[in-house]
Structures are given as structure tokens and as C-alpha cells.
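Hi W., the protoporphyrin IX containing FE complex you wanted:
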Amino acid sequence: MLFRSWQGPVERSWPDVVRLPDHVGVEHLLVTRHALVRQVLADPDTFRPDNALDAMTPIPVAALRVLARHGFRLPATLANNGGPSHPAIRGIVAEALHPHRVAALRPWLTAVVRERVGRLDAALGAGHPVDLYADLAADLPLVVLARLVDLPEAPAEVVKEFTRAALELFWAPVDADRQRVLAEVVGRFHAVLREFAATGTGLAGELRAAGHSPDVVVGALFFLLVAGQETTSQFLTLLMHRLSGSPEVLAGLHTGTLEVEDVVEEGLRLEPPIVTWRRVAARDTELAGTAVPEGTSLVLWLARAGRDPAVVTAPEAFVPGQRGSRRHLAFGAGAHRCVGAQLSRLEAAVVVAETAPLLAGVTVTRAPWCPDNLSFRMPDALVVTRR
Ligand code: HEM
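Structure:
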């Protein structure tokens, strides 16, 4: 199974569509080429998003009981909603994350990041190692999200424990004991979200006022927390790691020959935090000559699409602004394309601009380690010291 798909060089000899050896009895068709991934994403009638949040390792009865005890339900809401209610729900969420609202955050966000980087710089100057994941990137997207969307009161550590447990429960190869533990963590916070969904203000209130059920409100908040803020903190960590090993890019930022926005796009292409995303065939069809029976799960290899030599000049190199750099599919495409794209781009741009001088003078003593996971990178640390 392709659980560590970001590791190792891309196999140029791989066919366009690969039948994956099954994992716990579930077969998948892996789509490897940019054009084909795009084609699937652009055709939601043939390739529906219904399986986007299905557990990669089917959840056994014991863990399902734990979830049920907490009243856990995850109806089709956003990413897994191929039904008629999707456009209206998406519209309300997109309004909360409107580019104008996002752009207005820049001065505040710059001040927050500058203050954090100042503290990290002082610690490095005093000879201490610092963890750029734990001390900068881990909770930043959550703090930012809370400026745009009313969320339940909860310490950041509790939210992060929940979001990382959800990414493991639904996208990792896990055994039954671990599934029970994860189900407890996910179920417990889901109950907090449910309570908030009934009375919460802001986005929750707007969804309710538009006639959406409490389950839909919970589903939207669940996805914003789990996929929205968690992916961004992963991306910030991976991007800072990539930059710390790219002195020529840091020099280009310093002299102004490189634009921060181009660095962010090239980072999304080369270090996407979501490496694959799923669709399911709604009818018998075919893809690049391969038969795709109705019900087939397709794993779209977004990370590989960003390194497709048919699209990018130097697929494995970190060259901001190169041909094809912006054609990555890190945010998906079509009707379900990420509505948080502008927000995560802004966060990444501010972090790149504010950390570049610091990154030019550090040595990485502990690179991020990423656990087995079908879709999410989930780096655990990025420890650096002053050179
Ligand atoms: C670097 C960070 C991020 C990446 C790489 C990313 C990636 C993705 C991907 C691949 C999808 C599925 C697209 C598809 O099916 O075509 C998606 C959907 C979505 N993302 Fe993001 N995302 C990021 C950050 C965020 C943020 C910060 C938010 C909001 C706070 C967010 C909210 C959403 C929502 C609501 C959807 C579902 C859209 C729909 O189904 O209509 N994402 N994202």
C-alpha cells in the first residue's frame, strides 16, 4: 500500500493508472498523472467524492461502539458531499473564508509571527535548540482560523490531539487496539463540537439559520479543524524544512530576486501536506484505457501530479517560478477545490517572509518524521540550532 508515497524518487516507469495491492481487503486504483488526476477531479458525476472521509482501515465494531457512545456522525457535508446540498453549504463556508476577510488578517498575522520568530531567534542566540513545528507552526493555523470562524472554547493541545487522532483514525493503517484509543479521542471532541453546533455563533449560527441540521454544522466544523488548520500547520513545517536546506532560495528572497508567493507555490507543488485524495466511480467507466467498474475507489496522487514531467520543467528541484510550478493540484480542483486555499497561502507567505533570515543561519538537528498515512504528511518536529 502506498502509505509513504512522499518517500523515494518518483518512478518514471509507473503506468498512468496502477491497481494497488489491497489493504485489509479494500482495493484502490492509483492515478499517477497530472492530466488524469485533473480529469477525475473535473468530473464529479462520474467520479464522486463520497468516499473522501471513509476510514482507510475499516473501523471494527469495538471502536464503532466507542464512537456511537459519543454520538459520532459524519454526514456528507463538504469534501464528501456529492449531493445537491453541497453548493449551499460550501457557499456559506466560502463566505467565512472570503479572500477579503483573509487579506485583512495580514497585518495582525505578521505581528503574531514576528513576535514568535523574535522569541525563537533569541533562544537560538542563547545557544538553545528550537522546534519550529511545536513553537511556531503547530497552533498558528488554529489561532488564525479562530479569528475568522467562531470555534468552541478549548485549549490548542486538546484540539490538536483530536485533529491528529482523526487523521490517524481515518487515513492510517491502524490496528484494532489503536482504533479504539483514537475513537475515544475523536468521539470526545466530536461531542464538544455537537454541543457548540446547537448554540454557537458565527459560521455555526449561519449554517443553522440557513436550515442546515446540527449534524451538518458539526460536519463543517469537523472538516475545517481536521483538514483546514491541521494541513496548514503541516505545510508550514514542511516548507520551512525545505527552505532550511535551500540556501539559493533563501538568498533569492534576501536579495529580492525571488517573490515570496512563488516560493509558496513551489512549496505547495513539492511539499503538499495532502499527498493523495480519493474519489469513487459512480458508474462503469474507463481511465487511460483501464476499466474502472462502478464503486472503484480511486486514489488520486496529488503529490505525484505536482511532479509530473509533462507539466514541470525540473520536477524534483525547488525552483520557485519555474514553468509549471503553479499548476500543482495540492488544493484539488473542480467543485470541491479547497476553499481555504487563500488562507493557507497567506499564512505560508507570512511565515516564509518572517522566518527566511532565521532559516539562513540554522542547522537542522531533527528533521520532521512523518508516520504512515494515505493522505496526510503529519510531520512531528523540526528542531534547529544556530550555525
Ligand atoms: C496547505 C493547506 C491546505 C491544503 C493542501 C488543502 C488541500 C485540500 C484538498 C486537496 C481538498 C480536496 C479538494 C478536492 O476534492 O478537489 C480540500 C478541500 C477543502 N479544504 Fe483545504 N487544504 C488546505 C487548507 C485548508 C484551510 C486552511 C481550510 C479552511 C480553514 C480548508 C478548507 C477546506 C474545505 C472546506 C474543503 C472542502 C471543499 C468542498 O468540498 O467544497 N483547507 N483542501
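Residues 55-271+339-386 form a domain with the Cytochrome p450 fold (CATH 1.10.630.10).

W.
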